Amino acid sequence: MHLVDRLGGELPRSPVTVELDDIQATVLRYRPEPYYGTHVLLHIDDGRAGRELLRNLTPYVASAAEWWRAGEAWISVALSYTGMVALGLPQASLRSFPEAFRSGMAAQADKLRDYGPNDPKNWDAPFGTGQVHIGVSVFSDSEQAWRETVEMARHHYRRLAGITELSAQAFGAQPGDLNPLGYKDSIGQPAIEGSGVEPLPGQGRPIKAGEFILGYPGEGGAPLPMPHPDVLGRNGTFVGLRKYQSRVGTFNRFLREHTRTEQERELLAAKLVGRWRSGAPLTLAPSQDDPALGADPRRNNDFTYADDPHGHQVPLGSHMRRMNPRDTVMTQLADVNVHRIIRRSTTFGAPYDPDATSPEADEVPRGLYFLFLSAKAMETMEFLQQEWINNGNFMDLGDERDPNIGLQEEGATFTIPRAPVRRRIHGIQTFNVLRGGEYFFMPSLSALRWIGGLPAASTRL
Ligand code: HEM
């Protein structure tokens, strides 16, 4: 089911001022429910084959025109920096990409605080090797359309000798669309100015399109720098992919060790994130879950933190409040509107098992391919990883880290503010371990056509 259906077939419309038919659908289209899909990572052995693949695949890449309506299945294509080198982009174009993008996510481990278990040396193949050139993703709300579309994409790359499939990860199809730790996800998303739809209740004011799509003014008033020539940069955006393995055994043991009843366990799980597993926000359902609220897109994001300045409902350090503090008064000032990201979370592997408590359960393949999109994805990711995920100072929480994706050290804590005394839980663990990551550029449809049509000679420039 797509957003428009979940809202009862109607969405308040607003003027369109971005070129929806040139922007890839995945930039704006919400993940459906239920959802099925596959992320394919490809290597280009021969630039000519790479360009041929783009020429053949581009007609099937969905545009964002009427993104709120959605087709049954859609394809997106994204290119890494090494992929664009292999495709033979002119040197001047290659040089025009930001340095962090050119060096790749693994090389930015220091800035991203990807240490210890999250260190790129522990990543799964093919991540961080420079081998990943093209990312093709298929999203669908129907199993059959998903399978057919993946087959169609495969048909195009398998018949080209110069293209190698490095990996193909199926995702979705989880009972209740829950993520690997058993929560409903992909609720909070930014509203984007000029995208044709009014913000949903609680989404906040629309953010300037240039924060998410290249070629339009951003929050600062001017468009962000974009790759040259214009046909390459305009209507494109950057994508960060982070593959997380969820340590379900460790997570369940943590919940059990710090609670006595199932009710307390669910409340602790909700405090870590800021929402009950059903998606119901603690601001609106502070003491008891409300699944109907969690399922209702008109109500489940309709809140601010104005009435909860100390975090008695939603802990200041919970995942959701860290990742989007909304109107929280922070000890280190930041403009929340310039740190927003579009998220496309895709859960893979075995479904969440609430009874799994063994160390082996940590290693059952299960987790998230977390996709975040932004016109300055590299910069935003560094900011989030350094300031809001692996630090607590902005909320006066000292060295406490994000309870969901923070890298926890020995004896780490999580604070649940309450009256008269707060509860400080000791021994929080790293629940989601990073097992891979890549930066991609998601070009516009005209840019894909431009790259596909590049003359072979440009590979020698
Ligand atoms: C395994 C990894 C992760 C899990 C299990 C997870 C889980 C969740 C859940 C359950 C929510 C609440 C529901 C929702 O609004 O979608 C949420 C919200 C959110 N998460 Fe994550 N997340 C993960 C990784 C990340 C990462 C890596 C980032 C960013 C760097 C991130 C950023 C956000 C944001 C921005 C929100 C929405 C906050 C809001 O608008 O109120 N998450 N996440």
Total number of strands: 12
Spans of at least 5 consecutive residues whose pLDDT stays below 50 are none
Question: Biggest sheet, in brief?
Answer: 4 strands, antiparallel
Number of helical elements: 15
Q: What gross morphology would you assign? A: globular
* Rounded average pLDDT: 95
Kindly state the percentage of residues in helix.
10-25%
Helix/strand order, N-terminal first: HEHEHEHHHHEHEEHEHHHHEEHEEEH
Bound molecules: protoporphyrin IX containing FE
SS strand fraction:
15-25%
Alpha-carbon distance between the two ends = 47 Å
Order of strands in the sheet with most strands: 3-4-2-5
Structural class: alpha+beta
Protein name: Dyp-type peroxidase
Family: Belongs to the DyP-type peroxidase family.
Cofactor: heme b
Pfam families: DyP_N (PF21105)
